[in-house]
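[audit] Reproducing an earlier prediction to check determinism. Same input, same settings, fresh worker. If the tokens differ from the archived copy the diff job will pick it up downstream; this log only records the rerun itself.
[audit] input (156 residues):
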Amino acid sequence: MSRVLNILWWLAFVACAVVTQALVPGLDALVAGVVLLLQERDYKNALWLLPLFILLQEGMGTRPFSAALLWYASVLLFFRLGRWLLEVRSFAFVLLLSLFLGGGCLAVDWLMAPLQNLAFDLDESVNKSLIQAAFLPCAWFVLTHIRPGSPHVLEN
């Protein structure tokens, strides 16, 4: 039964993230789920969720074509590099990761713009990167406090 509840939780997360992304243009709300998966070392769910996240990003058009794959690869890279510095379940780690991902968001936009024959707007990309960097710690905090089985969940 816990497997079904886990799948339902992730599907509810995906639905909420898609709505959030529709309300805030340029934001990747699914990245908080990727960080949560990596922190929990939940590789079985990551096998079906990461391709789903990439397909959703490509389908929603929040990033230029094929940039979602590069974006999530940078998330994995920054997570692996950052885990040597801090405990991955700490807020300090997520804050540091969000700062690096803000820069990574800017770098992906800068790299993909000429490849897609798009104009690179620095102001728009910086604003999008700042929103992304500010969103991740807030979303992570909420998700870790509502996720069943999380050590942060308050027991009654």
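[audit] rerun output stored. Observation attached for the diff report: The mean pLDDT is 87.
[audit] end
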